[in-house]
Each structure stands twice: as structure tokens, then as C-alpha cells.
Design brief:
This protein is of the alpha+beta class and about 230 residues long. The protein contains seven helices and ten strands. It starts with a helix and ends with a helix.
Amino acid sequence: MPSAAERTRTLVQSTCSGVVLIPGLDGARPDQLTPRARVVGHDGEVFLLFPADSPAVRAATHAQDDELSAVLEITDVAPVSVPHRIRGRAWVSGWLTCVPGLAEPGSMMLRLEVGEACVDDLWGAESVEPEEFAQASVDPLVTHEADLLQHLHSAHGEQVQELCGLLGDRADRAGANRQRAVPLALDRFGLRVRFVGEPCFDARFDFPEPVRDVTELRRAMHTLFGAASH
């Protein structure tokens, strides 16, 4: 399974919605505190691009030599329609400063020096040290996951449904054969499916070995569907 640091780093570098929470800016609208872009630097710092007139930039500018604490909150929502659609959240807290000269006119780049991080997702809730975050790798499927899950849901719904055959006795106990199977999450280690009904439950289907790209993913999914059909 992916480590907490990998999961946090993947969420930060995904397209999931994110907002920067800064003490004293409680009156600002969420859209004013949502960066236009975010990227992780070589040393694990998070660079956040904002309009030059945003409240976050003003706060960082006025802080100058004082440390301005901030928290980047990422919310991960499933790209397919499913009950309990929020898959998880990650929080990266630290200190915010302006980085002049890195952004185009009308914008300002802010640097978040990471002090601590934590993630609460489908795997569980865990804390992450700054060094772990800096060294963590990003899941290779992160930029494709939303499209892949939507494609699985729309074009391969029957095959996803057949995966309940791999659950053995668990499928009978939970009534998975009578429930609608929805692909919920995908990473290099496997596929997570939510069986929607009463009760609603998740099942994890691991690949024989971790995949490194979409080509290897296709082979892994073919093997998984093949095992289910037999």
C-alpha cells in the first residue's frame, strides 16, 4: 500500500481542490484563498500561485520578517457519482512567504515551508514528517486517475461488477451480487470499488505487482477482469 507521505504528496500534486487557511483571514472567501496552481519543490516546499491582489499575498507581504503560519487543505472528491463522495483530505501546515520574480505580472508565488502534514483518506488517518513528505514519490497514475475511473465506470461497468466474484464468501455475506459496483479509486497498487447498497462497502483489488504507467495498468486491469470472469 502507499505510505502516508506518498498519499499526501500525491494529493498535493493532484488537481484536487485546495485552499490555504491563514489566521486572521477568516472573512475571506474560499475562492480568494484557492491557489491558481501548486507544485512541490526539490526540498519539499510547496509553491502556490496566487493573484497579486489576493488576501493570501497581502498577508504574506505584510508579515515580512515575521513567520506567517498557514495550512494548505486538500479535499479529494471521487470523480464518479457515488455515496460518501469525499475520499479524503490532506493538510500541510507551515510558514508562508512571498517569492518575488517567480510569477508572471499580476501574480505572486508564495512558498509554504512544510512544518508538518497529515492525511485522512480511504487508507486511514496518519501524520507525515516534513522529511518524509519531501522524499515521497507521487503515484504515477495521479494525472490520469479521474479519466480512467470515469472510463471504467461508463465503458466497463459490467466487468467492474464481475469483480465481486473475486470476493468469495465476503460477497455472499455482504450481498455484493445485488449491489451496484462503482470504481472509486485507482493507484499503482490496485483498484478500489464501492459496492452501493445496504450496506455500502468498499473492496480493494490489488494488482499482481505495482504498475508504473498507463500501459502497465491496462495489462493489470486485463488480468484482473480475466480472473473475475473465470
